[in-house]
Write a structure and sequence with these properties.
Blueprint lengths: L10 E10 L5 E16 L2 E12 L10 H6 L2 E4 L5 E5 L4 E8 L5 E3 L1 E3 L3 H9 L2 E3 H7 L5 H9 L8 E3 L6 H6 L19 E7 L11 E7 L5 E6 L5 H16 L5 E3 L2 H10 L7
Parallel strand pairs: 9-10, 11-14
Antiparallel strand pairs: 1-2, 2-3, 2-8, 4-5, 5-6, 6-7, 11-12, 12-13
Amino acid sequence: MIKYFDPTSLKQLKTPVIICVGNNDTLLATAVGNIPFLFNVGSSVKKGVVMDVLYCSDITTTLVSVSQLNACGNRVILDRPDSHIVHKPSGRTVARMHLTRSGLFCLDASPHPSKVFISLAMSLQSLDINDLHRRLGHLAFDECKKLVYRGLIEGVDALHRWQDLCPGCIEGKIHQAPFHISNSVTVNKLHRVHSDLAGPFPFSVHGCKYFVIFFNEFSKKLWVYFMARKSDMLAKFMEWKAMVELQLGCVLQEFQSDNGCYGMIKSKYANQDYN
């Protein structure tokens, strides 16, 4: 956790470091710094610092690499009843460990939370990474993280939660057989209009739960109307129809939709010849 880092040592990485974890996922470390500890060695408590620790927001447990400890002049002895770390130059035992039920060795030590980062963390504006993924048009999760870490998302300082399996991304990548080529041709501005009604959705800031679209096949223009109730669709259709017929100087000839729109419109214009 970032609150355990010494704030004077923490530095942002220009290029995030890729970390591969056990389930083949890749995580990004975005900063590096030192973590001060209180080590329980026998009957005494000693102060120490673990240096050059990578910070990754997706990892909630601080992991220590045995190879890195050895590279820094220490000898790591993993023996269940007496696992410990020895400082090679002095021969002193600097830390002890115990084996947990999960099969990991845990340091007998306690980190010092930094007061600076505790106050900073309270002021950070955090956002669910899954919400950001959807708001950015289903942008890749790693790219979402990079944007936040580089300060390119205004009002978002950090991300929380694990990334969920996104149904929209899965469905968007499913292969679909191509549509048959249509020989139908539109000859004027209101020859054929397509429509669809969508909802209900959670209430918008203006109290709307539905929307209806009208798409002009000839001009490729699209109109969108938002509604509080599904029954408002007929009024929106009449409003749109009066507007476009007045502006374009021609009459709507063909109207294509599913039962959500067509049923209400058909009951209104039962005597008119709409395809």
